[in-house]
Amino acid sequence: MLPDELAIIDDSRGMQSLLRTLGPESPAVRATDALLRCSEPIVVCTGFSVDGHPETDGPAGSIVLARALRALGKDARLVSWTEAVDAWQPLVPDLPCQTIPRGRPPGPLCGSAVTVEVCGRIDDGSYRNMRGRDVRPESPWFEDAIGTKALVSIGDGGNEFGMKSAPEEWFDNRAIARPVSTCDVLVVGQVSNWAALAVVAALSRARGVDVMPFPHEYQVLLEELVARGALDGVRRAATPTEDGHPIGSGPEVVRRLRQWLGG
């Protein structure tokens, strides 16, 4: 089984069908290859706005991924909007962080970009959430900071940065506008955090070094993010859950990926 498949529970958002279009090789493994070959600093970009708050989905996976990359000797840093980073900073004293503003053009970010649950700009210049609402005023404009192509993009719905790399026909009959941004490697999951965890598992296997969190550590991370203002994006509530899934779902994905590592 591919690690990517462990990050998808059902096809309610079309991620299983999208994964099948991305080729027989695991996107998480291809992302690992790209990241390990990268000689530039890696900027791990995250932050999808929910009523002005960051989601739980995105930051948790980004923190785990950035920590894994640094443990493997990569120059990785975490990037999000200013208020979000200010809130998370006590959780990540081990991670260099950068900030960009929301609702206005930022300065450029240097390095190769990884985007994790970042809202993608569409042709009319707006940023649309899954309800179709324009969240441009409260969103970080990553296209102005990193351009319209990332090294790796991670998403779970179709409206995220990098999703122009998904086949055009996948968007047929979906109420989602195709973003303008692309990526070298597109990784998808039921929840973007879980797809990021699949990449971390693939990194662990590629290097023979366990850089995966344990299930209880991951749940604590979600709880700490919520204590600092993050919301479940589907429930729109301060619960240590991701995209409306029951509590414990993320740790269960971690458990399954750790089992895959040992197999």
What features would you describe in this structure?
The structure is a single chain. The chain is of the alpha/beta class and 263 residues long. It has one domain (3-262): TON_0340 (inorganic pyrophosphatase (n-terminal core)), CATH 3.90.1640. Helix content is 34%, strand content 14%. It has helices at residues 3-6, 15-21, 27-37, 59-71, 82-88, 142-146, 192-207, 215-227, 249-262, and strands at 42-46, 49-50, 53-54, 76-81, 97-100, 112-116, 149-155, 182-188. The strands form two sheets. Strands 5-4-1-6-7-8 form a six-stranded parallel beta sheet. Strands 2-3 form a two-stranded antiparallel sheet. Helix 7 packs parallel to helix 9 (249-262) and helix 8 (215-227) packs antiparallel against helix 9. It is globular. The termini are close together.
Provide key terms for this protein.
263 residues; alpha/beta; inorganic pyrophosphatase (n-terminal core); six-stranded parallel sheet; two-stranded antiparallel ribbon; 9 helices; 8 strands; 34% helix
Task: State the gist of this model.
The chain is α/β, with parallel strands linked by helices and 263 residues long. It has helices spanning 3-6, 15-21, 27-37, 59-71, 82-88, 142-146, 192-207, 215-227, 249-262; strands at 42-46, 49-50, 53-54, 76-81, 97-100, 112-116, 149-155, 182-188. It is 34% helix and 14% strand.
